[in-house]
Amino acid sequence: MVKLTKKRKEALKKYDKSNSYSLTEAIEIVKNISSTNFDSSVDIDVRLGVDPRKANQMVRGSVTLPYGTGKTKKVLVLCTPEKEEEAKNAGADYYGLDEYINKIKGGWTDIDVVITMPNVMPKVGPLGRILGPRGLMPNPKTGTVTMDITKAVNDVKAGKIDFKVDKYGIIHSSIGRISFENEKLSENIKELFQLILKLKPATAKGTYVKSIYISSTMSPGVCVDPKSITV
Question: Given Cys at both, which of 57, 122, 144, 165 links 138, Cβ 3.0 to 4.6 Å?
Fold first, then answer.
């Protein structure tokens, strides 16, 4: 049995963890129970009634949050020399090809997003064993394998996030910071949730959205009533 810290015990006294709350109430509770001395991340966990082992029930996508995540993302563009100037002008933190492929092979992954071009995917493909487990592997479905480097970098810098269900059928995502105004957190969550609803696989049976929890760094989760997000 996990021993609760004093801070966690105090947090759990401030709400009923067996209850589900409206989105507005849940955000207020999360702010009330957050106890870090830094601007902690606010995260959402959406449990879906899908079987991610089946290709036709994989839920994944990307969305630009209206107010971003509050985190400046470090972007690497793996591109051919003629695209380096475009990557630089778009605001990429790193750009190039063989030099960075070798760095990644050596264990370097100090980046948040990797963008590349279709014609260099044969070189990037072998990096999958390193980038894949870290959620960094470029994918055409999320707009990170593209010839339009400017748009891809701009989208990421503007607050675009990629998401997909894990092996347990849960989507985890950061949707802002504890310092964000309640309304901004609410709008970010609604933007993400509406897309998740649109991506419901035709083959998914029964209840699609099983549960939604929001939390801040190191805080317990607060259950959100899905109906309060769709209104």
Answer: 144
pTM for this prediction:
0.74
- Residue found under tokens 């004093």: 6
| H helical segments located in the chain | 6-12, 23-33, 84-90, 98-105, 121-124, 128-131, 149-157, 182-198, 227-230
Q: Buried b vs exposed e over 194-219: b needs ≥16 C-beta within 10 Å?
A: eebeebebeebeeebbebbbbbbbeb
- For residue 42, the model assigns a pLDDT of 95
- Coil, strand or helix at 125: helix
Give the separation between CA 61 and CA 159, rounded to whole angstroms: 14
Nearest C-alpha neighbor of 152 from the set 188, 116, 112, 196: 116
Q: Which ranges of 106-209 does DSSP label H, i.e. alpha helix? A: 121-124, 128-131, 149-157, 182-198
**pLDDT tens by residue, 103-113:** 999 999 999 99
Query: Do the strands 94-96 and 75-78 form a parallel or antiparallel pair, or are they unpaired?
Result: parallel
C-beta separation of 27 from 225 below 8 A:
no
